[in-house]
Please model this.
Amino acid sequence: MAVETLIVLIPLLPLLAFFAIVLFAHRNNALSHWLALIAAGVAWMLSMIVFRRAVQTEELSRFPFAAAIEWLPTGSAALKIGVQIDPLSAVTLFFVAWTVLMIFIYSIGYHNFGQPKGEHDRPGLPPHGAEIRDGHGHVHRVPSIEPMYARFFALISLFAFAMFLLVITDNLLTLYIGWEIMGLCSYLLIGFWYAKESARNAMIKAFLTTRVGDVFMLLGLAALYSLTGTLNYQVILNNPSVLNGLASAASPLAGVSWAGLIGILLIIGTIGKSAQFPLHIWLPDAMEGPTPVSAMIHAATMVSAGVYLVIRFFPLLSAGWDGHHLTLPMLVMGAVGAFTALFAATIALAQNDIKRVLAYSTISQLGYMIAALGVGAYVAAAFHLVTHAFFKALLFLGSGSVIHGMEHGVFHTGENIDPQNMLYMGGLRKKMPLTFWTFLAGGLALSGFPLITAGFWSKDEILSGAYASGQTAIFWMLAAAALLTAFYTMRQITLTFLGQPRSHSAEHAHESRPVMTIPLVILAFFAITAGWVGIPEYFPAVGGLLPNWFEEFVGSMLVSHGEMAHFSLLPLGVSVVVALGGLWMGWLTYRGVVRPVDPLEKPLGGIYTLLRNKYYVDEFYQWAFIRPARWLAETLTDRWLDRTIIDGALHSIAGFGVWLGKSLRRWIDLPVINGAGDLTAAGTRNLGAFLRSLQSGRVQIYATVGLGLAAMVAILIYFLWVIG
Amino acid sequence: MNGLQVVFLLAALVSLFSAAMVVSARRMMHAALWLVLTLMGVAVIFVTLQSSFFAVVQVLVYVGAIAILIIFSVMLTRRVMEDHGDQILPGWRAAGLVAGLLFAIIVGFLALWQGFTTMLVELPADADNLLDLGQALVSPQGYALPFELASVLLVAALIGAITIAVDRKEDQHG
Amino acid sequence: MIPLAWYLIFSAALFCIGLFGALARKNAVAILMGVELMLNAVNVNLIAFWHYYAQVRSAPYVHGLAFTTMVFVVAAAEVAVGLALVISAYRRRQTPVVDELTLLKG
Model:
């Protein structure tokens, strides 16, 4: 079968699963998850087939698998949409397919399939357990099945469709469509438990914040289309004449070329979608959604889409780059990415919710990727994208497993604690060993533990690239962020798994079911090995043993290679030092925690509070943007314009209409029309009464009248006939 | 003016006067008797027209049977009549008008006919009208059918009159 | 020797008097009397015209006479039935006044 057909089929199956579940299967939990699982599984298989063929094809970047159809006739030409698999989309497809499948399988267990229904469970609220009696008559509280089970699988199927669509498409328009559908699914899934007010607020916040980014992105899209007449990647990005043209044309913004302006607009879209400062505020709140949602959307795929966009459009963003002076978009990316990486890492230090730490960690790592792209390290950014997806998904799923274990303990003991608070955990290593080892693998990858974790290789490449580009400020910021990353990761692992349990619930936690732990193992495998396809040749000792396949494959996307020739040991050393140092310091600080209190809280004092409250960014936005917007909506528009002016006008028109109707009725309808009708009726009646009197029943009268008439007729005929 | 004309005029005047009395007599018995006189006058006129057979038939049938019948029925319904006053309907003026109008029309139309003023002369004495009439009445090419129908009509009238007038008091309870 | 016109005028007058009687009298028997007058007028008319045609054609002509015979028969039958009706109506309603027989009043 032609590979283009296979490519097109990949997103279609999850879409069909979505419709099938929504229309037919939504009452049947097992059928719903099987439909979703089969769709994801087949999509995974097709993705693997396509990927295999992709890596076997020579010169894929110049001759990608492509197919297009004419979609929208526009005058003489037509807008074409289609698919394109080149090296970048091939590797993206690889990790998307794997993570999606793992998360789908995990969700079956996460939502407690097979458990009884809870007595007080209501759609819209997280399930809080069912009571069962065991053989001895004891009443146990056990986890109950999610009431909206089928809805979840429908939504994640739709999401999978959107992500696959975004990856395989060959033009910016369809990418934007997939982007927006993912935004919708993110909204629906963050607010999955819509009966909770915090979830509702979070879903709106996520949607609106990403929307801000999307508006600018759309402006960039429109500008690109109007300048070049197309949105197709090949035509724009593989075309030096187009790129140079855009780079030299001056935009309305002073001193900026069109390429720069469009680039900045697209970057703003990424800032929204990938939660970079200042639009990062939605991602931590998005943890209100179920953990598989956090894993899939907010770690592996949706936020990665933002980075994918800028990686894809790197030729445009770097149009005019001569290797030394960064173009404006690259400068913006570098600054924003590096700042966000450090900023988010500092906040993560002071968070106690296990998922919040990971959320800020995601923001930080995405900042890494964007900063890498900003300094021109194209392959490094793509590499980190791939590895990050694997270990971040792993970490989130692991945290979900931990939360399930803690919830079991909460049910068992009836304790009133937040099962997601790390300060109440501890010692889970013994209770949940598989979760522990896989989480450890992910955490070490995140920290960049040397050699054996994938994260090390990708992070090292980024640091090398940053150093080699000469942007030392960015380099040191990224290094500091790496130190903090290792620190808070070890903090998380220590608080959660090591030491002694700090609550009764933690004592009663137990390991999760295999349907949840097997995906963890598979992802852990990738978290460890995925880095080995990208070992740079210059690396001491092990460099050159394995070919740097990733560099060759993805690096062929660039028409002109970046400056990778310079090699220095400094970034390598810094990378190892910060990773190991951070891990060691984290372990030291947190290993002796016995009470549910953070040992850094008192020493850091005010700084700790600042970090805890995320630098009060949300509060600032509330004051600066939300309150004025509310005033505008509630007072100006609703009260003044709507109710007073518009409604007032309508009411007076209505009043006039009513008055008119009444007057017409009184003056015209009743007297004239009714009168005419009544008159006709009365007239007829009177005529009838009159005529009735002729029917006297008296024969003689009849005869008289008849003869008289006959006589007159005779005279008439005589005069007419004889004389006339 | 010859004798025949005088006889005719007398008979005509008597007849018309009696007819006028018939229609205006207050008491029914008087009206019936005036009717008899009228019929007699008409019989005389038949004679002047040289149809003596019909004059006799007139006297026999009309005066002898019909007028007698009328007198009988007047007597049988006498009880109630004495109570009512005027025997003329309130609308008699309209009837008079119509009658007058009709008279004028008839005479007017007839006057336009050219044979209106022919003088009727005596018929040849050898013309045996009665024999011809008798033969005509019974000959199939003549008036045999009407003759038979007339007899059927008489039978029907006979039976009908009896049926109508018979007293049904013995059948009904009221 | 008498002009036909006299007979015709006489017959018309008798007819109209009879008509007046039939239309303007209250008593049912009086109406029948009016009808008889009309029939007599008709007879006179018929005989007059018979005489006229017998004279004009100067050939045996009996049509008028046959017609007159029929009129006699019909008159007799009609009087018999009519009086029977009057008697019958008088019995039911105790009045021979036609004016009060108004069952057909509309």
Observations:
- The longest strand of chain B covers residues 119-120.
